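Checklist before submission:
- one chain only
- standard amino acids only
- sequence pasted in full

Submission:
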Amino acid sequence: MRVLAVWGAVVVALVGGGTAVAVGGPEADLAYHGAASLSGGLVDVRFTPRNHGFAAVPDATVRLQWSEPLVDEQTLPQGCARSAERVVSCRVGVLAADGVGERVDMRVRLRGVPSEVLLEFDTVWNGGTVDRNGANDRQRVLLLDSGDEYYF
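Returned file contents:
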């Protein structure tokens, strides 16, 4: 019981590779589901954010990172912006408790024409809510240059 009392009093805990995660406050559970494909250096991505938790998320941002650099000129959907050579961040906004957000569709061009690319998703802002199941808001999808869709 003493461990539980201490756990409830903790405001921030360090998990994984030193990532700070709030452990007090409303509990949400962010996840991203969708599909992606690679063909001739073009990556098509569509995903829908979802909150499987009990509390609403007042605002959220997801980061998409490719293993290959993107060309400098990109046309991105509203709410999305380049934040590094291989990174695009997208504001997904408010997510109701046990709710679904708006689908995000984007096409990016890679600098080269690789035979494969790794696409990674992770939440970088969850509006101050607690997400004790961080595993489902991180996705890794290996895309082969086949035009086939890979679902996550």
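Reviewer check: The chain is about 5% helix and 45% strand.
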